[in-house]
Amino acid sequence: MSQAPVHREPMRTMLKTRNTRRVQERFIEYGLLACALVAILTTAGIVFILLKETIAFFGKDGVSLWDFLTDTQWTPLFQDPQFGIIVLLSGTFTSSLVALAVAIPLGTIIAIFLSEFASEKAREWAKPILELLSGIPTIVFGYFALLFVTPLLRSVFPGLPGFNLLSAGIVMGVMIVPYVASISEDAMRAVPMSLREGSYAMGATRLQTALKVVVPAAFSGIAAAYILGISRAVGETMIVAVAAGTQPNLTLNPFDQAATITTFIAQVSKGDVPYGSVGYLSIFAAGLALFLLTLVFNLLGFWLRKRYREVY
């Protein structure tokens, strides 16, 4: 009896295709790993530079960590320099609190409306327009605060100076609204419809369902939106530089003018300060303080997401 011929060519083609696919998948894996490493190495490089230059800053004569943390004057560019970071922190906190007082309630209300009350057609129109607001350059917001919001506020508060934290904070809050509203709305939309239907079956209204069921269920995502808004407010530069002034001032009064950490960094980075001087190195110490402040807020947001995450 004759034996049936063995078809080796299709088998070789199949093995070759499989090997090619494995090589392609391995190449994609390495590419994705490289992209992830870029973000990690960039962050590590930033931290390294900040630490290196900050150590050099504290190595200068007359600069001590204790004075940096407790002094109430910030004049690193003067002949008799003083380095009290609390002065810049006060301006940063005050402007950020004003911004959050605007962005958090307004963004949350917008998110609740878009998620629970707006029609599908209204949502399709409103959300892109809302997100378009986040694409406006911050320098435009800064001049809007200086030339429109400040005169408007001065008509209500005649003693308000031309540069003030209130105007900068209000406009900064308007700028942050799209971030808070968009992320919060996405978190609310992710809440299962069964929770809403169960609330309606118990006789709750749409408003009661939104406030007592949907918002608590989406709290982890809403908290993430708030933390992102805080980080965005703390790191804002151009709005406060244009509308709040560049004069360091230890104050928690939003009606005063004051400089923030980012304002001082932008001021020194213009190139007028000699490279390697104590004034130049002070921007890295201030930048490290800002980095640690942002890190604290991000860790808080991570803890809130982990603490209140709901699994459906």
Which short descriptors sum up this protein?
mainly alpha, 312 residues, 0% strand, 2 domains, MetI-like fold, globular
Structure summary:
By secondary structure, the chain is an all-alpha fold.
Account of the protein in words:
With 312 residues, the protein is mainly alpha-helical. The chain has two domains: 51 residues; 241 residues, Orthogonal Bundle (MetI-like fold). The chain contains twelve helices and no strands. The longest helix is centred in the first third of the chain and has 51 residues. It starts with 7 loop residues before the first helix and ends with a helix.
- State the helical fraction: over 70%
**CATH top level label of the largest domain:** Mainly Alpha
- Low-confidence segments, given as residue ranges, are none
Helix count, per DSSP? 12
Q: What's the CATH topology name of the largest domain?
A: MetI-like fold
Backbone CA Rg: 27 Å
Question: How many β strands by DSSP?
Answer: 0
Mean pLDDT: 86
Structural class, from secondary structure content? mainly alpha
Topology:
Elements: H1 8-58, H2 65-70, H3 85-117, H4 120-132, H5 138-156, H6 165-189, H7 193-201, H8 206-217, H9 219-234, H10 238-243, H11 261-268, H12 278-308
